[in-house]
Amino acid sequence: MALYRRFVTYLFLYEDVKKGKNCGFAKIDARQGWCRMEIQMKGCPDGEYKVYMLHNVGSRRIGELSEGNEDDKTGKFVWEPEGIEVGLLRINDGFGSAVYMLEADKIAATAFHLEDIFGIYLIASESRFVASQ
Question: How far apart are CA 74 and CA 85, in angstroms?
């Protein structure tokens, strides 16, 4: 029997770095070496959004956590995730949907596997984006 994985993540609108309302979801199905990602959005501002899958493999360290933060005692650092562009999603009248078929072992023709992915990120502008986390 082939390995089959399925999960759903909710998407939230961020404007000026402030988390806003839930505006959709992404459903990921992986089986037989393929990853099917379906995104459904409702209530988002109209426009064209670039869709990325986020990974932190090889991400660059952007600095230590601020002083006084309890995590500093553990020696943790702040990491900036990197994104793999998988396509575009167009929002019209507040609604949009897209389906992407990707190889599970070579997301968007890269060396990254589905197991390396930890989030989804859609960028509309510098001040507006949608994210799963």
Answer: 33
DSSP code per residue over 60-99: EEEEEPPTT-GGGGGT-EEEEEEEEEEEEEEEBTTEEEEE
Place of tokens 């650092």: 77
Count CB atoms within 10 A of the CB of residue 45.
Answer: 14
- Global pTM reads 0.76
pLDDT tens digits for 64-111? Answer: 444 544 444 455 544 556 788 899 999 999 999 999 998 888 787 777
| Cβ neighbours for 125, distance < 8 A, ≥ 6 positions apart | 47
3-state secondary structure of 31: strand
C-alpha span between 30 and 82 (Å, rounded): 22
